[in-house]
């Protein structure tokens, strides 16, 4: 029976099964993204390396994601959902095997980079599949359901990493991940079958080179800035300058190639107001999410309150679970009332929580930290799903893959910038070589300023109930 003659109820079941398998696969991959965030002290001790070197298991992953993401628009146009799914999980599984067998830091870093290559293609595949196969009136709720991938999995990562590292060793992170990835791959080989509107497009190699130099150079420089904590090292500004120049040339080339639908990353979504507004708001939201939730709070819990890495990971878990729980209701609310009525209260909630973070000190109780973090993640829940859905809903179908690639690339750039800026500010404002209570408070104040900007710009999001923009 063809897709055209498949009964609606049966087609809906197939779509739900497809999205469900993609969500499970992405969950496994995103769990791996943050699992090493509490592993740096152990790796430094076991591998007898400096923290500045070991931190590249996180930064290298981030740089690799940023390099691969711009290519995903081309991949989604050129290959079917099934082929991309199989390729993505296969690459990820190979990376897990390399990490499990890694004798030292070199292969460990290689494993993380390979895994990032697999993860980078899965997230745009999931978003594009929701936009392609789910009816318009249910996209917000469905996208909200998928928010468990970007919420619960990263939230579980630090807690799982702390437990595994303390009891089994860091290589067991890969041994636990590998069978999960292989199981998802086996199920996906049977289940993932969906019609894919493909286009015969060629890979523009100059664009690929410029993308690697541009996004890789900027992210490498930002990561090195956070590592070195100095104002003008050549190792920071050299790669960033080269990256910025390459990125400018990349944009010029994409604008030329997109006239013939040959761009590696089609930038036409940026010309649409709905997409651009949602993109800017999402960038600010992701920046505060990474800085407050993934950098400053773990540092505060461990260096100021003296908590263990496992306790710090567990303290962040309730907020991550709240984000996952509220994802679907927030998406359903967006479907009913539109973007502005959801985003504005969410942005105000984020700004309020960030302001409360600035009051944290040496005597703050763990319960208060958890409570404010839950409040913060509640606000994030009311922005994340609606903004992603709003941005992609503004695009015609043939630009969904490129719009998704732009959104996800921006997330990695925001993460790199936020990590570097937060660590540098906190360190420079501290009395010693490591961030202390005063330095972290200054960094929290700067982050709260970003939250105020987010709340101020949120009303720019306008509700479009039936409009579908064409290009």
UniProtKB/TrEMBL annotation:
Entry GO terms, CC: plasma membrane
- What subcellular compartments does it reside in? Cell membrane
Among the GO biological process terms of this entry, one is:
response to antibiotic
Q: Where is the Major facilitator superfamily (MFS) profile domain?
A: 18-466
Which keywords appear in this protein's UniProt record, sorted alphabetically? Answer: Antibiotic resistance, Cell membrane, Membrane, Transmembrane, Transmembrane helix, Transport
Chief subcellular site? membrane
> What name does this protein carry?
MFS transporter
Source species of the chain: Streptomyces shenzhenensis
């Amino acid at each position: 029976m063809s897709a055209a003659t498949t009964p609606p109820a049966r087609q809906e079941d197939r779509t739900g099964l497809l999205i469900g398998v993609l969500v499970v696969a992405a969950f496994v991959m995103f769990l791996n993204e943050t699992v090493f965030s509490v592993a740096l002290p152990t790796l430094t001790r076991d591998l007898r390396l400096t923290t500045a070197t070991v931190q590249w298991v996180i930064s290298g992953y981030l740089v690799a994601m940023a390099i691969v993401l711009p290519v995903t628009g081309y991949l989604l146009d050129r290959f079917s959902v099934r082929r991309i799914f199989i390729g993505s999980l296969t690459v990820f599984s190979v990376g897990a095997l390399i990490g499990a067998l890694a004798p030292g830091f070199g292969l460990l870093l290689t494993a993380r980079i390979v895994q990032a290559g697999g993860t980078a293609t899965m997230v745009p595949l999931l978003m594009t599949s929701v936009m392609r196969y789910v009816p318009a009136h249910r996209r917000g709720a469905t996208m909200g359901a998928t928010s468990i991938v970007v919420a619960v999995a990263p939230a579980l990562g630090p807690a799982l990493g702390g437990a595994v590292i303390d009891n089994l060793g860091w290589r067991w992170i890969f041994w636990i991940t590998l069978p999960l990835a292989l199981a998802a791959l086996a199920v996906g080989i049977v289940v993932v079958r969906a019609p894919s509107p493909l286009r015969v497009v060629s890979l523009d190699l100059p664009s690929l080179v410029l993308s690697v130099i541009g996004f890789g150079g900027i992210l490498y420089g930002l990561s090195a800035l956070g590592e070195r904590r100095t104002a003008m090292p050549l190792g920071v500004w050299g790669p960033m300058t080269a990256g910025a120049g390459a990125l400018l040339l990349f944009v010029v080339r994409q604008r030329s190639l997109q006239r013939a639908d040959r761009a590696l990353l089609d930038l036409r979504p940026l010309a649409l107001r709905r997409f651009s507004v949602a993109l800017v708001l999402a960038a600010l939201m992701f920046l505060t999410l990474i800085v407050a939730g993934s950098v400053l709070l773990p540092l505060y819990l461990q260096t100021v309150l003296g908590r263990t890495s496992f306790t710090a990971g567990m303290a962040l878990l309730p907020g991550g679970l709240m984000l996952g729980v509220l994802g679907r209701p927030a998406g359903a609310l967006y479907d009913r009332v539109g973007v502005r009525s959801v985003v504005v209260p969410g942005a105000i909630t984020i700004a309020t929580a960030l302001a409360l973070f600035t009051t944290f000190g040496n005597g703050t109780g763990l319960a208060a930290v958890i409570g404010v973090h839950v409040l913060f993640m509640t606000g994030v829940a009311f922005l994340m799903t609606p903004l992603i859905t709003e941005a992609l809903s503004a695009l015609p179908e043939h630009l969904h893959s490129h719009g998704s690639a732009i959104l996800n690339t921006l997330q990695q750039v925001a993460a790199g910038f936020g990590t570097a800026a937060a660590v540098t500010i906190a360190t420079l404002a501290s009395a010693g070589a490591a961030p202390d209570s005063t330095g972290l408070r200054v960094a929290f104040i700067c982050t709260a300023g970003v939250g105020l900007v987010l709340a101020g710009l949120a009303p720019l999001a306008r509700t479009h109930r039936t409009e579908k923009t064409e290009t």
